[in-house]
Structures are given as C-alpha cells and as structure tokens.
Fold each of these.
Amino acid sequence: MKVNVQDQRSCCPVATSLDIVGDKWTLLVIRDLLVGKQRFDEFLKSPEGIATNILSQRLRWLVENGLAQRTPDPKDGRKVTYSLTEQGEGLKIVLKAMADWGMNSLKNVQIHPDYASSVSAK
Amino acid sequence: MKVNVQDQRSCCPVATSLDIVGDKWTLLVIRDLLVGKQRFDEFLKSPEGIATNILSQRLRWLVENGLAQRTPDPKDGRKVTYSLTEQGEGLKIVLKAMADWGMNSLKNVQIHPDYASSVSAK
C-alpha cells in the first residue's frame, strides 16, 4: 500500500518525497529506526542530541504518514516502541545514498558504531 | 577536494550530510541544477514555486559550501549562472534514491518532463 500524500505542490517524485521526509530530524529518526532503535529514550541518546519536543513531533509525523508504527512495549505495557513500516524501510536507499555522499565528499566524517552495521553497509 | 564541514554535532556521515543538504529547498535547487537549469529565473519557474528570498539564500549556501559555482553569464555579463561542482554532482545518487522511493512508496507521483531525463534515469 502506498502512502497517500495530500496537498502537494508538485507531482515530481523528488519534491513529493521531500514533502514527507525533507527535514533533517525526520531523516535522523528514520536512521535510528533503521538500525533497530525502538524507544523514545534510545532516540534521545543519539549523538545529535534531538530535543524531546522535536522527537515527539517527528515520531507522530512518521506514524501519521504511514512510515512508522507505534506499538505497546512488550516489556512494559505503559511504554511504546516504534518500528518502520515497509514504506519506511524503503528509505534505507536514501539514507545509504546520503551516507555514501558524505563519506565521499565531506571532511571529518566517520561512522558511529551504532550505525556501522546498517546505514553504511552495501 | 572534500567539502569542509564546520561545527557539526555528529561525525555520522548521514548527520553530517544533512547538516549541508538536510533541507527541502536546498535539495530542490540541487535537483534543478542536476537537470541543467542555470539561471535564477529558471529556478523560480520550477513547479514548487520557491520564493525569491529562499532561492537567493539556498544558492548562496550551495556556493559557500562548495557544492555549486557562480559564474558570469556568457550571454549577458550583468547576469550570473550557477552550476554544480564535482561534490554537488555527487548528490545525484541522493536525489535518485529520493525519486525511486517516491515512485515506489507514495501515491500521486509523476515525473515532470523537465526532470524525466536526469533524476529519474537509471
């Protein structure tokens, strides 16, 4: 099932994708989900230091747009976990391209151990 | 030559790339440069309707960060043209991944004739 995009200004696939994921923090949360992070406090600990209100907003956005799902934590029913849907998983190619470009074109880049296995893998 | 990144919060290649190009309008201007648009008024005519002040700021940002170059227009010395540097051209893989994801995962997506030959090509 494809994600429904409302009120877009353009039908270009790049522009339409950017209407959904054209934001740094959204893509960093997707990166974390791709490496298996599931809980709010795990996202908060990522090296970029996302603020709690931005994290809440971006997680809600991903769920509302069908890229992530929110489920009760099996270890603690009062908490929730997040995971990517099939559509969200599809963004791995975008994050991989971003990582490859950064490694090839920018100085002072290195892979954090949390992300070595997934985002940077061929 | 690699682009120098200052004041980054993280050394992750995804996060570092997003510090430079983690913005919708920046990536849309890069998309336009990738298909050969060169002049301010050509970028303004793109279907997303970028505002002049945002376009000016994003072009300046791309030049300052070594992703684009600004040269006098050979047809009219009072005007300038923009083109991607080698580092900027490298972003084609990111835009291609965005387009592929949009085509596969989002509804109501179609390729504008301006972009059919480049961004969506294999």
Amino acid sequence: MNFSSKILEEAVNALSSLPGIGKKSALRLALHLVQDKTHKSERIAAALLKLDNEIKKCRFCHNISDDEVCEICKSPARSNNILCVVESARDVMAIEETGQIKGRYHVLGGVISPLEGIGPHDINIDSLIRRVQNEAIEELIMAISPTIEGETTIYYISKLLKEYNVRFTIIARGVSFGGELEYADELTLGRSIASRVPYHVHT
Amino acid sequence: MNFSSKILEEAVNALSSLPGIGKKSALRLALHLVQDKTHKSERIAAALLKLDNEIKKCRFCHNISDDEVCEICKSPARSNNILCVVESARDVMAIEETGQIKGRYHVLGGVISPLEGIGPHDINIDSLIRRVQNEAIEELIMAISPTIEGETTIYYISKLLKEYNVRFTIIARGVSFGGELEYADELTLGRSIASRVPYHVHT
C-alpha cells in the first residue's frame, strides 16, 4: 500500500495488530478517524491508555477489576460457600448474564495445554487450592469449556482436591436450546442421554 | 453486558464507536489488550493521538499528509499538466497503486449529495477551480465513482469549467477484468459497448 502519510501508516500498523483486523480494515478505521471532527481518536486513545495503566486483576479471584478487589468479591450479598471456576474474565461476564451463580468466581486465566506449553503452574490453580484450604468453600462448580484442554484441567484440579471435603461439580453438557438433535455431535448427544434429568411440568 | 470494570466498559464503548465494530467485537479487542503484556494498547493509543494531533491536509490537493504540502504535490517528477480529481484520500492510494497517473491529484473530500445535505460548497470544488485558473493544467481526469452523486458532481464541475481551455475526461466505465458478462448490470454493459475501443494485439 502506498501511504501518503507516515502517521497514517503507523496508525494502520498499530490497528492491524489487533486480532481480526487486517490492513484493509485498519486503513478504513484510520481514515474514518482522520475524517472525524469530534476527536474520536483522542477519546479512544485515552480509554486504551487507562486500560494499559489502571486496570487490575482482583487479588482473590483474578477477574479484571478497577480496584485491588473486584465488585463480586467485595459484595456481601454473594455466598462464600460456592466458587465457580472459569477460564477467563469473558466467561465471568457470560455467566453473570445468566444470574445463576450466587457465589463467587475464580478465574484460571487459561486451561492446561501441553501443546501450547501451558502447564498447571502457568494458570491460577495454586491460588485456587489455597482458597479451598482457607475459605469456607462447600462447592466448586467447574464452568470450563468441554474441550480436551478443558477436560484435562478439570481432571487435574479434581485430583488435587480429592483430600478436601468440597463438592466438585461440572456444568451440564447436553444439547443446546434451539438446536436440532440431528445436528448435535454424538458425544454431546450421548452425554445428554446419560445425564438425563427428571422432567418437571412448570405450573 | 455486565462489566466487572468501569475502565473495561469505557474501552469497549470507545472501540465500538468505530465503524463496523460492535459491542461484542469491541469487548473481544479490549480483553485481548488487557491480556497483552507488550503494552500494545499504549502503542495504539500513541498512534491514534498522533493521528488526531499531527496529521494535516495538503494545502494544494487536500490529500492527507504529514506536512503542509503532500509528497505527491512536492515531487518534481510529477507532471503539472494533469490533475486527477478524486473523492477521497483512499482513492488516491488506490490509483497510486495502478501507477497510471503521472500528474497530481485533487481530493474533493466527498461528492455532491442533496439527500445527505452535501452541496457544491461543502466539498473542495472552489479550490479546484482556482487551481485550473492559476496552474498550467491541461487535462482534468475525473476519477469519481459512477454513482448518481458522482455523476452529478462530474456534471456540476464540467459546467463550471466550460469556459476554461482544459481537457475534461472521465475514467472508462465498462466490464471488470475477471467479471462475467452475464452478471454485469445492463447500464455498465451498455456503456462498455458504446465506449468500445480498437483492439490491439500485444506483441
């Protein structure tokens, strides 16, 4: 690409370093910002600088947070007895949308993946064990993606926690709402039959 | 969306103000930046601030430029006699890729569009007329999109320039390379037949 401006070229290179944004999209965004008369790029820059300088990880659950301790861990309305273990901050948001977790979270920050060189000590498992030892946790809900890496991580953690008196559960795997049975993979379909539950008529 | 962090929420709002980036993509980008350990968001912020503060429009052709006068207008290798009139800086880049323009450019910064409230004085037509009056321009090549608005703009400029002794040309409209005839719209196909050119065997 023949840029008429070094500054424009730098902006395009910076924007195209984001995942899913190629050179052409980056150029479109940069030209949009050049044309914009409301100082939009200044506002975006300010927000990104804050992201770099001010955002923290909660010292208890490792969720992203504006303070040392996140809103969920701070909340007195949350149960101390239930801990939902997730892979990422994105998963906390998705689960919070459901309103099904009355307890707190623990963000692993990844799953064990030998192929990518991620071992048990590269994710927040040690701090999870310490929480189980020191907090009044009764149930650990593993809300981890049912991938090979996810299953490995669940298995690994379950082994470490065998000696502790804590209920260890995983979220149900089964057919999705709105999904058609014939398109479900056989592993999921098989599991959904094995894990069948009594039917309750909602009145 | 239930954000656990105000800073994250602000970044998502800022990023989703960009065209083609929705809340979900913005969240994905923001979380990517939070995880990134190389200060990528700082680098992007710096590039965007430069874009806001330092980029200029060339005082001759209105193309985006790092200086008062753009590289193309500065270049002594460019012909003074040919002026290619385009809608946007993006079009200058696209045409420069072809290497077909040996002259200079004039960026209108839009086309006349009564529906969007863009009149002749909202785009750089006045300065174009002044250039025709004061520079040694022999040919004006209109490289404007063949839309209703583009055609209106070409017609309007052609009327203003009737009294000047300057060749007024438009880029050829016809079937695209690699396109199939049966899929070309009838206006384009009709025009391509009316504007047919002698066939030269390349040796």
Amino acid sequence: MISLSSKLHEECGVFGIFGDDVMKPASAAYYGLFALQHRGQESCGIAVSDMGVLKCRKDMGLVGEVFSDKDLEALNGHMAIGHVRYSTMGGSCVENCQPFLVRHSKGRLAIAHNGNLTNAEELRGELALDGAMFQTTTDSEVIAHIIARERTRCGSMEQAVANTVKRLKGAFSMLVMSPRKLIAVRDSLGFRPLVLGRLGNSYIFASETCALDAIGAQRIRDIEPGEIVVISAEGINSIRDNCSGVRKICIFEYIYFARPDSVIDGIEVHASRIKAGRLLAQQYPANADIVIGVPDSGLDAALGFSRASGIEYSVGFTRNNYVGRTFIKPEQSQRRASVDIKLNVLTPNIRGKKVVMVDDSIVRGSTTVNIIKALKKAGAKEVHVRISSPTIHWPCYFGTDIPTREELTSNHNSVDRLCRLIGADSLAFLKVESLCELIDSKEKTFCDACFTGNYPDRQG
Amino acid sequence: MISLSSKLHEECGVFGIFGDDVMKPASAAYYGLFALQHRGQESCGIAVSDMGVLKCRKDMGLVGEVFSDKDLEALNGHMAIGHVRYSTMGGSCVENCQPFLVRHSKGRLAIAHNGNLTNAEELRGELALDGAMFQTTTDSEVIAHIIARERTRCGSMEQAVANTVKRLKGAFSMLVMSPRKLIAVRDSLGFRPLVLGRLGNSYIFASETCALDAIGAQRIRDIEPGEIVVISAEGINSIRDNCSGVRKICIFEYIYFARPDSVIDGIEVHASRIKAGRLLAQQYPANADIVIGVPDSGLDAALGFSRASGIEYSVGFTRNNYVGRTFIKPEQSQRRASVDIKLNVLTPNIRGKKVVMVDDSIVRGSTTVNIIKALKKAGAKEVHVRISSPTIHWPCYFGTDIPTREELTSNHNSVDRLCRLIGADSLAFLKVESLCELIDSKEKTFCDACFTGNYPDRQG
Amino acid sequence: MISLSSKLHEECGVFGIFGDDVMKPASAAYYGLFALQHRGQESCGIAVSDMGVLKCRKDMGLVGEVFSDKDLEALNGHMAIGHVRYSTMGGSCVENCQPFLVRHSKGRLAIAHNGNLTNAEELRGELALDGAMFQTTTDSEVIAHIIARERTRCGSMEQAVANTVKRLKGAFSMLVMSPRKLIAVRDSLGFRPLVLGRLGNSYIFASETCALDAIGAQRIRDIEPGEIVVISAEGINSIRDNCSGVRKICIFEYIYFARPDSVIDGIEVHASRIKAGRLLAQQYPANADIVIGVPDSGLDAALGFSRASGIEYSVGFTRNNYVGRTFIKPEQSQRRASVDIKLNVLTPNIRGKKVVMVDDSIVRGSTTVNIIKALKKAGAKEVHVRISSPTIHWPCYFGTDIPTREELTSNHNSVDRLCRLIGADSLAFLKVESLCELIDSKEKTFCDACFTGNYPDRQG
Amino acid sequence: MISLSSKLHEECGVFGIFGDDVMKPASAAYYGLFALQHRGQESCGIAVSDMGVLKCRKDMGLVGEVFSDKDLEALNGHMAIGHVRYSTMGGSCVENCQPFLVRHSKGRLAIAHNGNLTNAEELRGELALDGAMFQTTTDSEVIAHIIARERTRCGSMEQAVANTVKRLKGAFSMLVMSPRKLIAVRDSLGFRPLVLGRLGNSYIFASETCALDAIGAQRIRDIEPGEIVVISAEGINSIRDNCSGVRKICIFEYIYFARPDSVIDGIEVHASRIKAGRLLAQQYPANADIVIGVPDSGLDAALGFSRASGIEYSVGFTRNNYVGRTFIKPEQSQRRASVDIKLNVLTPNIRGKKVVMVDDSIVRGSTTVNIIKALKKAGAKEVHVRISSPTIHWPCYFGTDIPTREELTSNHNSVDRLCRLIGADSLAFLKVESLCELIDSKEKTFCDACFTGNYPDRQG
C-alpha cells in the first residue's frame, strides 16, 4: 500500500447566501461547505446575521463533525457566510478559524476569505504602529482592521470595503457580511475562484459551482477579477472600478484543487483534466498495455490519455475511503513500504503489463517513488509516468501550500534524472506552453508562477 | 445531488494474527481492520493474548476513531484477533461489539465472527433451559456458551471448537483465541470468505486478502469450507473432518461487498466485476454514446461494459468523500431532490448524451429513481440501466442485511414495469445463469439464494 | 495544604423504586443515587422495567456526569433500580458497572448489589465447572448465574432469589428487578444497610435514608437481616425464613461511611458520631484551648468532644470543594508537603493554641502525619489527636476497602509509638468496648471485625 | 432538601508568578487557580511567557477539567498568569475566557483581570471611533487596546500600563504579562483584593492568600490601592504615583466571597465572620436551644453567634458535595419543595428545638423561604434568622453580580414584613454601622454601596 501524503494543499473555501425564501441560510451554508470540504479540512465555521445581530459557530474539524442539529437551529438569520480552512505552518488553532467576527464603531462585521495577501506583514506593521492590536495571525484580521478603520471614515460598508481593497495586495476571494449587507470581493487578478448563483430569490456566492449544485442553486456568473458585488434588501449591485479585464486564475485549480464537477470562470474542471491527459498522450506517447490514474486526481487525465492514445484504460489502485483525521500509524516509521494505508495496487490488473501511470503533479517525489515501487512489486513490466502539470520550481504567494524551493524535487533533478530516481521507465510532464489549452484560452489568463517564476503581480 | 442510502450491507469482517516477529499483533490488527472497514462501520475491536492473559478494546465507531496510540500500546501480546461490525435491527450497542471475551472453567476465550447462525434462537433456548444466562443478543455469545461447555468436557480447545461447530447451522467465518491458541473456523458451506496468510513467521487470518496486503503479508490459501485451522507455538494444524468439498460462497461478495483488490477463494474480485459488465454488454447491448458507473461499486462493471461494447467509458458522477457518521441533513425532508449529498452529476459529460448507466444492484429502487432523475435533469437524452446482478427476491439468512420481501421492488414489479417506474429508457439485469461465469466456475459453487430462493443449507 | 487520600472506602450504594404515581422512577433513582454518591464515585447506573422490557444506562463517572436529560427521558418504566460503585483493585472498567442485566430462560433480570460475597470464588468455580461462562469479575454476575439457574427450576422469581440467597455467604444488600417484580434482599447478618420507604403509592429501597429524603419519601422501616421483600402489582410481601434476629451491621457505617443525615437500623448517624466524640472526651480528656475536626467526617465527633469537655469548638481547616475526578497533581512527588490540595490549615485559629484534633480513623497514618505537620507549622503549641474509632488491625471481607495488614499502621506500632511517629502530643482511640454505646445497643449487634478480628460469619 | 441557587457571585480570581526556581510557573498557576476556584467556576486559563513567546490554554470549565497533564507540560516558561471566571449575562462563551492575549506593535501582551470598569462602554466607544475593532465583550479587551496604543507611544510596558490606568475607572485588580515583565495593578480604591507573595526566589500575585498557601508560598504584603508592581529579571519595583491612601475594599469579600482561610488587606476572613456572628448575638439576641449555620458561608458566623450567646452550636444541614456543573434536575419544576438537592436538614438535631439559623445574606429571599420551610417541616419549634450582613438595596458596579433593584427583596419589604414572608419567628440583619468592626477598622476603609448606595467613586 502506498502513502498519499505529499500533495499540494489549497487553503480555503467560502460560501455565502443572502435570503431565506427557499432554505434557512445556515442550512444552505452547511451543505455548501460540505461540498467545498476538499478545499480545507482543518476547521470550518458559519456566521449568520439575524435582524442585524451577528452570530457564529466555528471550530476545528470537518463540517460533519463541527455542526450539530442544535448548532444549525441556533444559527437563525436571513443571511450567512461560511468557511472551510486548511492552514499552513503554525496557524492551526481555534483562534484562527473563520468566519472572523468583530465589532467596530459602526456595528458588526464578519469576514470569510480564501487566498493570501502578499502585503499582510506590511499592513499589520502599519496598523500596529497606529495602535492596532492583533489576536490572531490571520490575514482576515488584518483586512477586518482596515475595513473597521475605513468604516469610521466613510458612509457605507461597501465604500469601506472598496477603500480597503485598494490597500490589499495578493490573492483574495472574500465575503464580508455586515448586519444588512453581503459583499463579495475578488482580487484584481482573480487568483482564486468565486461564483455567483441563485436559488429562488436568494443570492449565493461560493468558491466553486459544486456548492451551488449541493443546494440546487443555479450558477449566474463568476465574480470578475477586481469586482465588488453588494447584496442587500435593495437588491444586487456591482462595483467594477477595480476591474481591468486581466485574469490570472490559479491554473492548479483546474489541475488538482477544484472538484471535477465544478465550472470555474466558465471552464469545466473535469474537461480540462481530460484534455491534460490527451495532450500528454499526444506530446509524450508511450508503448503500453494499459493506462491507469493515481486516485482521485489522476483518474480524469488517465482517461484522457487513454482516449487519445487508444491504450486501454484500467484500474491500478483501490483507495481506502475511511482514512480520517484521527487515523494513527503505529510502527510506520520502521515499515513504511508495507503498511501505508490509502492505496493498494490492484495486482491482477498490473501483473505482466506495460503501464502508463498518470498523476497530477510531482512535488517532493517521495509519493511517486513509493507508488512505482508498488507497481513493480505487483509485476508491472514497465511504468511510464505522465504528469498532467509542468515541473514545479517556485513558491506560491497566493494561497497554495507549496513547500520550499529546497524541497521541490524538480529544483534538484532534470526530468531524466528524476525518472531514474523514481524508478520509472519513462517520465514526462505537461509542457508549460500547453497550459493555455487546458482552459481553451489563447492568452495567458492564469497564474503559472509555480512553474515559471513569473508572478503576475510583479509584472508591468 | 443524489442519495446512496439504500444499499445492501455486509455484517462483519474479522482479522487474526499469531506471532509478533515482524509487527506487534495489535498494530497488525489495526491495519488489517482498517482495510476491512468496508465490511462494517458501526463498531470495532481488538483482543490480544499476552502471556495467556486476554485483553480487549472495543467500541462503537470506525477503526480510526476507536483506537488511540495509547490503546494500541496497551494491547501487548503475541497474538490478536479483531473485528469490524455492521449490525442489523436493534443490536446497535456497545455490549454487542466484538471480539467477545469470556472466562470459563478452563480459562479465557475470545471470539470474533462474521456470518449468521440460522439456529441461534434454538441454541439460545436450549442453553437457557440448561441454566445459561445471556448478556448480549449476539450469535457470538451463543457460540461462546457452547464452546465453554464443551471445554469442560474435552481435553483441548480445538476439540471443544470442533464439537461446537457440529451444533452450529448457517454461516460463520470465525476466529477463536484462547490464551495459547488461535483457531480459525469456516462453516461447511463456506458462505463467508476467510483467508490464511503469512508475514515472516507470523500467521494471519482475514476476511479478505486486502487486509493481508495492508500489512505486507502473503496469501497462502483460503480456509476450506468446514475446515478448522489451529495455530499455536507448536505450529499450524488443520482439522478437516467437516470438509465435504461443497462450496457455497456468497456471490454478493464478488458483486458488491468485497474490496475490488481482494482475491476470494482464488478469484479476483475486480476481474469478476469487469466480467459482469462484459456479460451485460453481450446479453443486453445498448445504443449509446457513453457508459458510466455509479460510484464506487458500479465503476468496474461499467468499465467491463465499455470494453465489451466499444462504447466510450466516461465519468458520470463526482462523489463527495467526506460524508461521515456524524453528517446531519437539515431540512432534507422538504427538499430531498436537490440537497442530497454524496453524488453530484458531472453535467457536461452527460448533456445531450445517450447514456448506459451501470450499477451493482436494485434493492428498493428509490436510489435508482433519484439517480436517473438527476441524469435526465443534466440533459441525458437516454438512460439505459444495466445492473450487474440478477433481480433480488429472497431474504438472506447468512449475514447480508437484505430488507423484507415486501420492500424488495423486484417482488412487485416486472423488469419492464420497473424500467418505467425508475424512468429509464431500458433496464436489464445480469442473468442468474451467468453468475457462474463471474467466478469462472462450471458448477454452482456459490450461494444465490437471494436471487433464486434456493437456500443451500436446505438442499439434499 | 494537606492530602486526604488514604481513607477507607465503602464499595457501593443501591436504590430501587416500584411505582410511578408521584415521580418517574428513573428520575427518582437519579436523585436517590445522587444522595448516595458518597458511597461510590467510580461508576453508576440505572435500569428500568418498561412493561416488562428492561433497559439500562450505566457508565464510569459521577451521577451528574453519566446521566443527561435525554438518558433519563429514554428510561421509561414503572420501576427502576440504580447503583453507585466504588471498586477495589483491577475491577475499574465499564463492564463491571451495575446494575447488571441478563436474559435467562424465563425472561430478564437486573441486579444492583452492595457488599462482598466471601464465597464468590468458590461459587464461580462450581458454576464454571457446570458450564457457566463469565464476562465480568463481579459478584453480581455470580449471583445472577445462580438466580438464572434456580429460575429454570422453580415457579417464581422470589423463590429463585430465596434459593439463591441460601448459597451466598458474606455481605449483600441487593435489589433484583424482574420484568414485573422488585425484590430486596439483605444478608442474614445485615452487614450493609437497606431501608424501605414510601412516596405516595410507590415503594422505595435505598442504602440510606438520605436517598429517601432526596425525593421527599418517608422511611417505613429497615429491611431485616435475612429478609426478602417482594414488591409487585399485587402489593408488598416479605419472606423471613432466613431471619434469625442476629444483626451485624458494619460499625464503620456509623463512624465514617454513611451520610450524617441518614438513619441506619433506627440509629441516627450524626448522633452516633457526636456520641463518639463525647466518649473520647470522657475516656481521654485533654488540656487544650480548642477542639477541631478533620473535614468532613471528623467534624461531628469534634463537636461531641467539645460539648463533653467544654473546650471551645473551632475551625481548623478550610476544605476545597472543587477536587474532582480529573484533578491532576503536577510536580507533586517532589513537593508533597506543600502542594497538597484538599485541606488548608486556618492558621489564625491555630497559632499559639493547644489543639485537640478529632478524626474518624487512622489507616496508614500518612495523612495524619501531614495534617499534624501542617498544624505545627501553623503554630499549634500542642496537638492532641483523638480518633473516633478503635485501632484497625484486620482486613474486611464484607465490602470495605481496607488495605492489607502490612499497610495498617496499627499492626506495626503501639499507640504510644504511633503518637510519636505522627508527631502528636497525645493520641487516643475510641475503646472497642465503647462501640456499643455509639448505637445505644446493649448487645454487639454490629460487626467490628476490622478492630477485633472476630468475623461474625465464622462464629457459632 | 433545599436549593442554594440564589447567591451572590464574585466575578473572578487572578494568579501570577515570576520565576521557576521552585516550581514550574504553569504548575504553580494550576494549584493557585484551584485554590481560587470559589471566585469563578465558569472558565479558566493560564498563559506563560517562554523566552519571550507567550502561550495560553483556556476554556470553559473548572480548573480540574480544563487542564490535562499534557496541557501543563506544554506550558513552559519562566512566568505565568492565570484566571478563573464567573460571568454575568450574555458573556458566557469561550471567546471571553481569560487570560487575554494580543499582539501589538512592540510585541505581545497577556492580561488577567478581576473587577469591573465603570467607564468601559465610554472607552470602547472612543477606541472604536479611533478605528479599534473588538472581538470580545470583555473589559480586558478594552484595557489591552489602551495598553497597546500607549505602548506605541512610550518607552516601557510599565509606563504604558501606568498611562492606561489613569484612563480606567472602577474596580480592577489586574495582572499584565509582557514577554519579560509581570506587572500587577490595583485600582486606586482597592475594591478587589490582590496580594504579593514569595516562594524561593519567585514572586507571586494572587487574589487571595489561600492561593499562596496552595503552593507553600509566603505572603509578603497586599498590593496598595493605586499601586503598580513591576517584576522583571532586574527585580521588583513599585510605582505609587496613583496611591492616595484611601481604601475601599468590597466588604462582601469578608462576608461571603473570600475563602475563610484567606487574609485580605491584613484582616483574617474567618475571624471577621466569627465577629459578625458575635455582633449579631449582641445586637439581636434570641431565646433558642441551638445555633446552626447555612453551609458553607453561614457556618463561621453561626459559631461566632454561639460563642457570644452561649447557645449550643449544632449542625442543621448535610451538604451534598457532588453537585457539579452538569447536574440536571428532572421533574423539578413540579416538585420544587421536595427534590432540591444541595442541602438536607439533619432532622434529629432540629426536631422540637428553638433554632437560631445564621446565613450570610438575603438577596431574593427564595432560598431562605425554602430553608425555613424545611426546618419547620423537620419539627423546629421556632426559627430565628440572623443575617451576617445588612439588607441589600443597591446594584454593584465593581464586579459583584447583584441582581436588579427590582429583584432585591429588601427593596420591597421591611425587615418585619420580610420576616413574615420567609416564615421566620424573628429576623435580624447586621447593622451597617457594625461593618467597621468586622475588619477592626475605625474609618470606613471599605465599600458598602450595595447596602447604602454610597458609591465610593462618586464621592468628593
């Protein structure tokens, strides 16, 4: 069996709903967050506004663990925002859970946000010098401080948010809930997804369309990069001062993060993965008996490879669906090779075969080594590895948990050398130039900085 | 999104290990039970024998929830048995968890068992009249009583077990641990699987080979129907007095219960499901654009159907992997159709297509109705349903949780009528006569009573 | 501050009620057990009979921790029995919690019992040889086995109980609940208390009268030693075949175990403690400024000493009421003297004073050493220790957790030597001959075996 | 049995230690808070400074419930502050637990505080207008904001604290921990106690001396009203700019709140209660057979009454020590009188007696009604009630949870009328003029505003 531990991680997902004509907003948020659970499994929370009074329930744990019937009953209100969180280093504690609620001079405010500010430390320093005090280590608290201060100076919450956004750098798809308004914001490059939907007379914002499907809502459109959408009893209103038409969606949303049934900025995620497999088959054909994918994220690309190459699609692994947060691994250090737990090779399918194995990425390389070792042990004659993304070389400042450059195996090894190191018979990565094709785009409307080092916020 | 609630359920899985030369037995049992978790998610337990002293830890919950590092540390011993349990009606309480430990006149005894006795009530009555007292409602307690009584009369535990087995009717794959011996028993028709493996100098028994793989052990052979295998410091010994060569393995182990990477009685489970799909394609071809499977158990047969028919294999659904035991469903009664949670249709793949949808069985029919409704709503032009098992008509007395005859939709509806009821464009079930082919058998070496009403223990 | 850890422990308390005209039986049991909590803090449980169906809720923990509103709501029924438990060595686990429920040939049975059988091992052996199987290490299971066997042979539950009682040796105040009857039994020497009360038309059994007070019930009378009282829809009935008129109530119930507001076998516990203090003052006067008691059990005797001697009653210690089961003691091993936690000396009352300190017993002596050290540190000029019980020399076979003879300090030291060891200025114990006076008895109607070694069940 | 629910409540207790030469600071705080548990049972917390890094563990619950061995192990550091909390209306949630930790421009800060600001809302408003943002509803957050802002302007933490204190009105005994300093502050009237102690080379601050005793520390002196004491590696330093020599300690600390073994501002609490009883006996003698106290806080005054009057001191009630936070009260609404749970009358002591019953205060009067009813039911011939404090008429703004004026029974009833209402044969309260004598003071060095309405902060 094989470990799957060294994957990249997304940092968050958000959900918001204004209106209770079809469902109780807290219930809608519950289902929505559940559908977004793949974007963050560490903590979750839901805040509601009940006749102007904000309430919140949040804790460490999965959506199904944190919320009881009683919790949802208590969360009355005509709107709600919710959040699921995966956290990087050090910040894994209940204080950092979102939504983040504060009181300021003009009332209350709740924030749920996905992404990473690149100037958070700078802003934190400025605020502290001005007397601000911090109780968490989150970007959300920094943003809340600025909104709170702006709000003392300007006439409306949307204006305070608009002023705030001008000071923020980096990636953020963010929901702000005041007692009577629900405001959605997407940074001017649109690194992280954010979609608008509708259910009856209620409006919904969500990181991905799968959260709309979860409550039977219809997708209206994606929030534009730089756009601020304000929903209140008066209706829906959009502020586009900050929209430049430039788009830099994180390409890894398509390759790995998003759920395959989601549609992001108009592009079907599943289809983009099928296409990645097709491109690999065209660019790096292999002489093999079967094509298999590494579950779950490699399966779609493997199917695309099979279709383009005509090589039979087969099942290489059985995945154990029961690995939860509390799973311990007794004696594992001594016996890594044999007692890993998430994947088991389906030996009869592999024995004596020349295999194309498709996966979504190679980060540290250790997982791939183990998987290939297991395939060879099961009797694979050859293992040809095809990766549906380019080689990763650069850190991400926009909310993906990419390890240090030191840890990225592609910074130490050429593809040839890496092929030998992981024990593969051939190895190929999707070409950087092919990324456009994944999303049917002629221009580079996405961020590929982790592959190229071209950070979109540093460009002209 | 679509509910997946009305599936059949297996009742249990067992694991046993004698020897600690490679791994601590409790740790091995932990990994083994984790791999068998699909056989029972309600409760689990591990008992060890430490220099003749038996200890046990068991509780309601998944393997990953019940056992802490500390629990496993405390479970010292040179052998262990473990159990995962799914329970039918009424018996869902901590008293009924297994392994079941007792003290008797000659010492201690632990039992873990998978299956259902058909004469449990009769035996319980006889024992009670003889003064026996019961603290649980399990078959295990009945068996333990008989062993305990036999043990006062005969010279060895294996003899007591052998005498006991003669009185038991029905299905049982059972592990008995005395302070110094580990004994495996399989009923004379072999309804439930039980396999023998080896890791270093340690012997292992498990319900399925995937549990052997989980600890890096090698499969030696399946326990024969009627066989008793005794392992002690003196080595391994087999009692075959009760072996008649007849085999009646539950065919649903291949169709649905077992993990696809397991090999049961020498037959690969995944391969038998691929074959079921092939047979359906040959027997009931369809004019369609794509073939999809209902996750997870319909996927293999769908792939077989695609291969035999040449129709493109596609992905019809995204499965949410985070539905756990604590998931609640607020407001669901009002909004069943839209807020179900486990499956979401991958609309772009379905829209405008003629679809073959493969699933493993139809029990009550309600799940199938919802799935087809969702496919049609996503724009499927036609939905041709192919079921990789025959129609179910009869209850199971051997450990499968089949509902009453009343609830089985095939007892009320012809296939044609059912096709209209579920809203399919065509519907076909695997032929009963084809079941032999699933396991490459010329004779009927399996139990198909749920399809035919021919209960193997009532024959000749 | 001073530790109070080395006290004697009572093993159990029982409560039963037949009838629901005034209160729900489970609620009554809850309040009753709460009032009996001092008799056992390790585990507790309540079983009810609902139209002949027995149900039970039991777990480790205090009454206030184990039972939720929901638990009590679920425990419907027209009668209930309950139990609080303190366990000696090894048996502290959920399996051993009471009440103990079993199924036998004629139905169901629940037992709650207080006391210790002296022939439990012998009975267990006989039963095992006859094929009985044991799942716990409790006397209750032994008793249940015998009742279950007797019940197969005789026409009524009360007859089965009566036959069973004849085989039991030792101490037991026991409640047996069958689907339609509530039966109370007290061993023929009446070691442990058991009282009958009434609330409206409901009958109640309880270890102490304070449990009757807790629900507003009236005491009718104590169950006689050897008596069996049967309550059913037909009314109350008494079987006295086994009553010999001999009484051997544990004298420590008066000295320490029972709550001071209880009345046991007609004698007020508080009054007997006041009297013990008076006797000490008369027998062993002291020249002192104040009399103080060690909380809580020494306070009453201290008051008695003060009244008889005319020496001023004062407060020597403040007790911390918040020490619970989960209290940990970091760093205590290194710093025993200073960081003990339950008691703090009220220094201003002690400074410069000659003090009479009254406590209920000296077991190992270590607690007394610490207390005297603390009083001297607080400035006591002299400390005269008066113990309201004789010196303890013998083990108890009847349900009191007295340590081994080795550990009893009075087996190694004369009173004079012990006085020097504990650092007291004088030390005296109540005379064995005075015990009669505590309960206003002319004969020895109590067990004093722990002081004298005269075990009442070995006499005559 | 009798309820004790309608008592006054103290709001908090604090503990701080600088130095780890004798004990680990977190362990010392654990023992110290445990001794202060009577000052707040709702939540508790400990923060440490480890080489300048602040860490905290806090949660709802008792000290013994919140902290595990593992928690204390993780709380390394050379100093610690801790807090126990009782909260009034609305604020009972984990966010409001203390100590309160923040990051500001110059580093980190932890606060634990006891008392109530009277200008908190005003300060909160000013801060909010200046852009401050609030995450809790506590005074502590307001104070932290001001300190954080002051700290950006001035050169040291002690100066920031000194500047802050000038803006605060009301009652506060407060500990501030920066990475390298421990600072204690007491408001200029000294409403709440705060004492300085020493253990080896470590300094300790605590609300009461009983917390010093708990770790074997010596009391040095009380912090003066208005004093700021700063402890760092450089030693101990005192800032007395704000000390005016005026003292207004809350007199209820002596009457009821503090533990009897504590010494507050040099006065022994137990002795002051004995004296209150003596004064009552002198001012309001009674013709009675016995004097009893209502446990626990009425016992000392009852003893004083007995000594001054010569009437025999007796025990009127048995208290159940096991009532915890989770105790439920099934069916109580219907049966209030009989199934209350904390106190049971010791009937034999009461029957036929003329009784003086001493209690510390009458707030709503309902408790007293129930107690007298129970005494009369137990056969008391007469019940003469003596209260060791004056009648309560006014709210407290300084941290005592006194109900509204409406709810205070003394605002609706003369003493005579109240006597009849509660069913007593006579009733008397301590004279306001006698309060000075409780603490051996000639001047009014205490706050008695709840009796007189003379709020010390509004005078001259």
